[in-house]
Amino acid sequence: MGEAAAGLVTRRTLGRVTGTAAATTALSGALLVGLPDEAAAVAERRRKRRKKRRKKHRPSTPTTPTPTTPTSPTSPTTPTPPPDVGPVLDSRGLHLVQRFTGGWTSGLAAEVAAAGGTDQWFAAQLDPAGIPDDFSTASASWWVSILASAQDLWARDRAGTEGVWVANANYERWSMLRRMYSRRQVLETMANFWEHHLHAPGEADGVALFRSDYGRMIRRHALGRFDELLLEATTHPAMGVYLGNAVSTKKAPNENLGRELLELHTVGRAAGYTEDDVKSSARILTGYRVDMWKTWNVYYDTTAHWTGPVTVLGFSDPNASADGRAVTAAYLHYLAHHPSTARTIARKLAVRFVSDDPSADLVDHLAQVYLANDTAVVPVLRALVASAEFAEAAGAKMRTPDEDLVATYRALEVAVHAPTAGDSAANAMLWQSSGIGMRPFGWTRPDGRPDRAEAWTSVSRMLNSFDVHYTMSGGWWPTKDAEYRAPAAWLPAASVRFDDLVEHLSCKLLGRSASAVLQTAAAQATGLTASTVITADHGLVRWNMPRLLTVFLDSPTHFTR
Amino acid sequence: MDTTPAGKPCCEEYAGLSRRGLLKGVLGAGAATAFFGTTFTQTAYAATQSADRVLVVLSLRGAADGLSLVVPYGDAAYYTARPRIAIPAASLLAPDGFFGLHPSLAPLVPLWNAGKVAAVHATGLPVANRSHFAAMEALEDADPGSSARVGWINRLIGTDDYENPLQAVGMGFTTPITAMYGPEGTVTTSRVDDMVLAGADRWDPEGRRPLSLNTLWSEAPGAVGRGGRSAIAAVDDFAPVRAISATPANGAAYSDDDLGQALADAARTIKADVGAEVISVDHDGGWDMHANLGTLSWGTMLGAAGALATSLAAFFTDLGPLGDRVTVVTISEFGRRVRENANYGLDHGHGNVMFVLGAGVRGGYRGTWPGLVDSLDADLAVTTDYRSVLAELVTKRLGRSVADVFPGFAPEAVGALL
After folding, report:
1. Cβ(B394)–Cβ(B142) below 8 Å
2. Cα dihedral sign for A548, A550, A552, A554?
3. Taking CA atoms, which of A217, A242, A249, B199 is between 20 and 30 Å from A27?
4. pLDDT at B134
């Protein structure tokens, strides 16, 4: 990009706006108006839904049919200069932030502008130490379990204070919150990437005790080197407990981690390793133990380490010492620098950030950059973003359920506060994510959740997303310890034509101008015409704003990134 | 994506199908003519047809240990290889002198005694594949010569002219399985009760919500667009299923877990008779028992086998006479080693057992026993290609040809069906 400000375009609404005053304050009572029979029906629906599933949200306020006549005059207005609706990124900048943040939110435009443009913003994000981390630090204390030791978590479980599954749930919540509100958006995006690559679901027995520590460890390495990350992750108790290495012995090495390390985390099956290689891999890893279900102490046990020569692909070692930590480090370093691992990581990054089917050329190129930089990920990301293939892939990736939810909170600019109850937004968002189709780290198998559109476009998933979008558009659930924008706050002016309002909302919620399809869909959803004049007193604002806001969230644009 | 000019969809067949599906969904809403007319001009396809015969494919994810489920107690190596976790012969159910069922499978014994359950042992992929993920892909693609991402269930429903996506329904999970991937439209849903469109309610008497969504999605490209259109159409197609009571019939009691929920939803779908010829149920039931598979007094196999049997028995109880249409087959990606490991568990092996239950089944222990070997890496050898079992179902129950569903495969007779 050339000029510093080239990533920014100051958008002005294209249409006509009636009135010039700022948006009026919210009509706080308007949403609570409902007819008695509707209230009863809603109450019944809520009861049914609660019965159906606890994690399902439910509207607590009915919408009412749209009045067919607007409450404001619709006479043609004088074409006064349109008000400034704030800067919106150009298409390239929008594409970059969609891929490397939790999703568009209108504050991003100002953030990019303050950085001096998209490239400068991205460069700063790649060096997160320079970005305040206040939100992540503060929100880590929202739940005691985030920073508690395994022993403390176990004691809390035994005492009936907090089950270990809750501790794990809290970590998943915190991870989503970070993606919603952390200013280190690229760091959070990459932490999430590695957590799926080195997947260790906290719902598996015992993993929960170590899951937050594991996630925080990954976050420390998220923009660092893969060889360092791989060593810490493979020998971490969360991974050891999940894939059986924590109970593996020299007498009968458990092959689970040794195999998945090769197949999933590093070289992949195409590298051509044999069953003997898998056995050696498992033998090398013996010794990293956890005293499961008793003290949960993490220790290295020299009496459990298998000794004797080991060979895995091109790696071999006499492995004569009962302390196998040095050979483990050498083995993992070998794997991290293996060309097949480079392709595994390059391909995974390309599938995550470019498209479902990246070209072999791009993967090869990124793999070379990875190897040339000693497994450092930042140069690979720079190369990826600079590729022509990336530039052509805007909107090509489907959001997973948790990504949809994160993006929805960001688009609607919901403010979330420290939870005070089980149904506080910070807690409820986990049920929202699973209601759509998957908790953030809920995939039960070690291969990590799939990252192709076909996996996330089932009927269930789509309908559940529509449901969450609509419910949040109404601000109906979750409501506790959360602030939604009042309906009138979405108006750019005291009086505005409907099509201009749609244009304004498209910029606010989706970061781009409204397409003709979106204009049509918005008109159909509300029964309003382009020239209808909307004020805070209009029925749309008083009753029907959820039916308009959800149009943007239900669009293919919001489903993709 | 709706800012992109409407381009040519990447697969015309899909696009046409989905539009017809959409139109049908719109018309199916009853008073739908109010918002018909602008976008869709094609003729609606026929309403859902009746499925006289239904195949339920139950995937036991994680590689269940077939030697614990159907125990070869007549093979001495079974006991020497598993000194701690072998199941004593005296505890086994339905013993025939060589094989017996895990005690937790007791709920299936009435069906077994009625000749409605076959256990085909030593089945699997012809070549051992110890990767869960690669094995599942190979198993469900079931067309080793082809690089096309088309699963065998998708090929199966592609052999006729019937195009409603409800012909193949996936249940129990949100993500579609490999066996269903391909050009034919299918439906995957985690729960029948989720098949509603939020906001299309009594406060939307003019149908503005579905109208607006149709507009948003009618030209959206790619898999995402297909997903959106299928979802909107499926809401109406599934209305008869939602109308069936969620309370199981005949006092049936499913296990209180995802499997029970999925099979109960499968039963509702069959009762509603919306043309679901193949129902795929995905069960991730903790079968990957590297550690703590355990014994008859503790461990994970007790509960896993019990939940499986409870839910399968409840499924046929719930269906009642309709069960005469329905055949269930279980598949797990591979079996586990013969010899136990140090953690009361079993590592990845090869051969496994497949259960075939319900209509048309020739009950009893089937397959060719290869004999067990007690050595460190020994597997149960595969003597019956799993496709031979599926081929019998595909040909005898669903009237399809092996060549269409399993191209190039020459099945052997298994004898699990009448």
Report:
1. no
2. negative
3. B199
4. 79
pLDDT of residue B284: 82
Above pLDDT 70, what percent of chain B? Answer: 89
- Tell me which residue has tokens 């259960």: B355
By Cβ distance, the residue of A41, A464, A559 closest to B202 is A41
Residues from chain B contacting residue A471 (CB–CB below 8 Å): 198
A463/B195 Cβ within 8 A: yes
Q: How far apart are CA B370 and CA B416, in angstroms?
A: 18
B219 or B1, which is more confident: B219
Among the partner residues A247, A459, A470, nearest to B230 by beta-carbon distance: A459
What is the Cα gyration radius of chain A? 26
pTM (two decimals): 0.80
Whole-Å CA distances, A548 to A15, A519, A535, B331: 19, 11, 15, 46
B 187-216 near A (Cβ less than 8 A)? 187-191, 193-199, 202-206, 208-209, 211-213, 215-216
Please give the residue of chain A at the shortest CA–CA distance from B377. Answer: A275
The residue of chain A with its CA nearest to that of B205 is: A65
Task: Say how far apart CA B312 and CA B108 lie, in whole Å.
Answer: 7
Report the chain A residue with the minimal C-alpha distance to residue B343.
Answer: A247
Query: What distance, in Å, lies between the first and last C-alpha atoms of chain A?
Result: 21
Test mutation, A35, A275, A458, chain B, max B CBs within 10 A: A458
Single out the residue of B66, B164, B170, B80 nearest to residue B382, CA to CA.
Answer: B66
B199 closest CB neighbour out of A255, A455, A470: A470
Q: Where are the beta strands (DSSP E) in B284-351?
A: 326-331
Instruction: Give residue A59's pLDDT.
Output: 45
Residue B368 pLDDT exceeds 80: yes
Report strand pairing: B278-283 vs A8-12.
unpaired
Cα separation, B382 vs A175, in Å, equals 45
In angstroms, the Cα distances linking A549 to A103, A457, B66, B219 are 16, 22, 52, 21
Q: How distant is the Cα of A141 from the closest Cα of chain B, in angstroms? A: 33
- Read off the pLDDT of residues B129-146 as tens digits, 9 standing for 90 and up: 888 877 888 899 898 877
Query: How many Å lie between the alpha carbon of B204 and the closest alpha carbon of chain A?
Result: 7
- Residue-wise pLDDT for A515-561, tens only, equals 999 999 999 999 999 999 999 999 999 999 999 999 999 999 999 99
- H-only helix segments in A13-55: 36-52
Residues of chain B with Cβ-Cβ distance to A461 below 8 Å are 174-175, 227, 231
Where b means 16+ CB within 10 Å and e means fewer, A113-129 reads bebbbbbebbebbbebe
Q: To 10 degrees, the CA torsion angle through A112, A117, A120, A121?
A: 20
Taking only residues 3 to 62 of chain A, the set having a beta carbon closer than 8 angstroms to any beta carbon of chain B reads 38, 41, 52-53, 62
Q: What is the pLDDT of residue B47?
A: 59
State how far residue A518 is from chain B, nearest Cα, in angstroms: 7
Please spell the DSSP secondary structure of A510-559, one letter per residue.
Answer: HSSPPPHHHHHHHHHHHT--TT-EEETTSHIIIIIHHHHHHHHHTSHHHH
Distance from CA of A230 to the nearest CA of B (A): 21
Q: Are B302 and B30 in contact (CB under 8 A)?
A: no
The partner residues of A288 in beta bridges, in order of sequence, read: A300
The residues, any chain, with a CB within 8 Å of residue B197's CB and separated by 6 or more, are A463, A466, B209, B210, B213, B232, B235
Is-contact B304 B287, C-beta < 8 A? yes
3-state secondary structure A339-392: HHHHHHHHHHHHHHHCCCCCCHHHHHHHHHHHHHCCCEHHHHHHHHHHCHHHHC
Do B334 and B128 meet the contact criterion of CB atoms below 8 Å apart? yes
Residue A543 near residue A63, CB atoms below 8 Å: yes
